[in-house]
């Protein structure tokens, strides 16, 4: 029945606008959830860095290993922050799309015609490639094409090497910057411990727990990417 109606009646602009806005809000909520998860991961990684550094200071024999762990955790934090920045940028693009879509429908209501927007086309083409939003952004792009706001979409995915570019080889200077920010200059170099004190086993962070926490954190980060 709906297909027969589509032949004789044009889509209702108000219904199209509601559907587009609903999809945009759904995508925005997804980004907000992912950003909140990344914020939690950032805080947890900060705690792991501080705990590893304290363990190295308490026990000189573990200073080198602890220093290595803090750098591993710092690299994870860099990845988390890069992804968080990417999602924040995507959220801003999505909000821009919503403003332009609503404006396009308003113009259509006044002038009786819809003009394709290159600005929306550019933002949607970028967002549809985002792994976190790929499915729902495809649906939104189809609705925007039906409404005449954008033209048919082309390639909707990026090569994996482009998506992950720069995430595996963080510069040592960037790692040092993160550690300096978190430890406020309290980081000792490998094999050198600042103000060594008697080791307190009951207060020492358990290595296996730290490794488990790191594995869990990496799993969550990968889940956000996929």
UniProtKB/TrEMBL annotation:
One of its GO terms (biological process) is vacuolar transport. Pfam families: Snf7. It comes from the Eukaryota. Residues 215-226 have a biased composition (Basic and acidic residues). Residues 193-226 are annotated as: Disordered. Coiled coil: none annotated. Gene3D superfamilies: 6.10.140.1230. Residues 199-214 have a biased composition (Acidic residues). Transmembrane segments: none annotated. This is Vacuolar protein-sorting-associated protein 24. It comes from Heterodermia speciosa. The lineage of its organism: Eukaryota, Fungi, Dikarya, Ascomycota, Pezizomycotina. The gene is VPS24.
């Amino acid at each position: 029945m709906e297909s027969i109606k589509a032949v004789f009646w044009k889509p209702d602009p108000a219904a199209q606008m509601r559907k587009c806005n609903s999809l945009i809000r759904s995508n925005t909520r997804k980004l907000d959830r992912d950003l909140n998860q990344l914020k939690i991961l950032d805080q947890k990684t900060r705690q792991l860095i501080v705990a590893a550094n304290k363990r190295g200071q308490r026990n000189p024999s573990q200073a080198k290993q602890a220093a290595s762990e803090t750098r591993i955790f710092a690299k994870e934090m860099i990845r988390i922050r890069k992804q968080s920045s990417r999602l924040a940028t995507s959220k801003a693009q999505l909000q821009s799309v919503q403003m332009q879509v609503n404006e396009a429908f308003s113009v259509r209501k006044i002038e009786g015609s819809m003009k394709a927007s290159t600005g929306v086309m550019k933002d949607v083409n970028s967002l549809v490639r985002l792994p976190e939003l790929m499915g729902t952004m495809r649906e939104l792009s189809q609705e925007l094409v039906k409404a005449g706001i954008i033209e048919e979409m082309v390639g909707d995915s990026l090569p994996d090497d482009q998506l992950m570019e720069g995430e595996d080889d963080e510069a040592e200077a960037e790692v040092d910057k993160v550690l300096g920010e978190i430890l406020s200059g309290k980081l000792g170099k490998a094999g050198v411990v600042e103000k060594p004190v008697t080791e307190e086993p009951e207060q020492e962070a358990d290595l296996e727990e730290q490794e488990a926490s790191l594995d869990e954190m990496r799993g969550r980060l990968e889940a956000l990417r996929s």
